[in-house]
């Protein structure tokens, strides 16, 4: 009879641990999913910002017959522009290339409308994402104008401001939803742990009544919480990255775009899983340690 009761308790304990681990895994899966969305939203935002280029046109005062000197000065100016701290990428566009680009944009295949290469050479400057900011873009344009050999700098500031504000608004909403969901995740995991500890409230009180110290009683529960948090994180991350692998394979993008950010995501998911389970376990266990025997029947 005693053995039957012991086997039944073991089955209940195993079932309880499985249920809690799955609950934690589901919650951490969604936490990781929001993390992936946030990471890739930031990358997409940076990609969009990099499409907002600034064009620096060369000073065209040199006699066209002195082409060698003109090319040398243009190359020197191009190198000066590349060394600017706000420049991520710079592309030199010659007169011939500028003419070809104009033809493509206008949908013209003939040279009849163009009397030679009438467009000035320039440098197409791709800025670092942090400099595509309405408060910084004017300083960038000013510094480019100060570069020796640059005659004029063109930038569609209105479009830049509009795109920047829209992207920031989207990222803010995604971040807000991520924080909100993290709070919900904490509540859900906390409730799962509390239900698990609730089922052991009589064992906790019995240990206390026979003289066990609170630290001694808490220790095995905390260890179990850490293990459950790790198991839940492993299951959740395995499901997350499996789904992410198939998704990236379908759309043809790299599975890992930034190793450091993915490492941080894994660390955060593990940290959230362990931290919440431990804190919830400590609070739930402490509650029953501080209650009387009679309160256990009405908790």
From TrEMBL:
Major subcellular location class: membrane
Any GO BP annotation: cell division
Localisation: Cell inner membrane; Cell membrane
Keywords (A to Z) from UniProt: Cell cycle, Cell division, Cell inner membrane, Cell membrane, Membrane, Transmembrane, Transmembrane helix
Protein's membrane topology: Multi-pass membrane protein
Ranges for domain ABC3 transporter permease C-terminal: 176-291
Gene Ontology cellular component list: plasma membrane
Domain of life: Bacteria
Domain FtsX extracellular: residue ranges: 55-153
Gene3D superfamilies the UniProt entry points to: 3.30.70.3040
The keyword Cell cycle belongs to this UniProt entry's keyword annotation: yes
Segments passing through the bilayer: 20-39, 170-193, 225-247, 262-289
Biological role stated in the UniProt entry: Required for cell division and gliding motility.
Family as reported in the entry's similarity comment: Belongs to the ABC-4 integral membrane protein family. FtsX subfamily.
Full protein name: Cell division protein FtsX
């Amino acid at each position: 009879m005693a053995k039957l009761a012991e086997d039944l308790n073991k089955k209940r304990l195993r079932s309880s641990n499985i249920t809690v681990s799955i609950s934690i895994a589901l919650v951490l899966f969604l936490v990781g999913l929001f993390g992936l969305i946030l990471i890739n939203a930031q990358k997409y935002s940076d990609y969009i910002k990099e499409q907002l280029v600034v064009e620096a046109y060369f000073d065209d005062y040199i006699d066209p017959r002195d082409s060698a000197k003109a090319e040398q000065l243009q190359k020197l100016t191009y190198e000066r522009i590349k060394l600017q701290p706000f420049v991520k990428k710079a592309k030199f566009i010659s007169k011939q290339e500028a003419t070809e680009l104009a033809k493509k944009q206008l949908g013209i295949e003939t040279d009849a409308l163009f009397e030679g290469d009438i467009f000035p050479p320039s440098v197409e400057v791709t800025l670092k994402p942090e400099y595509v900011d309405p408060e910084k873009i004017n300083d960038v344009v000013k510094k480019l104008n100060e570069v020796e050999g640059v005659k004029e700098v063109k930038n569609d500031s209105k479009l830049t401001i509009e795109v920047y504000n829209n992207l920031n608004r989207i990222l803010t909403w995604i971040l807000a939803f991520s924080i909100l969901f993290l709070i919900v995740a904490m509540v859900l995991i906390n409730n799962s742990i509390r239900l698990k500890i609730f089922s052991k409230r009589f064992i906790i009180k019995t240990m206390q009544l026979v003289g066990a110290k609170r630290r001694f009683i808490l220790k095995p529960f905390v260890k179990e919480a850490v293990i459950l948090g790790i198991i839940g994180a492993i299951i959740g991350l395995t499901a997350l990255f499996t789904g992410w692998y198939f998704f990236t394979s379908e759309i043809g993008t790299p599975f890992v775009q930034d190793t450091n950010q993915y490492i941080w995501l894994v660390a955060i998911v593990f940290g959230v899983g362990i931290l919440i389970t431990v804190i919830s376990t400590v609070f739930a266990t402490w509650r029953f340690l501080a209650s009387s025997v009679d309160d256990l029947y009405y908790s």
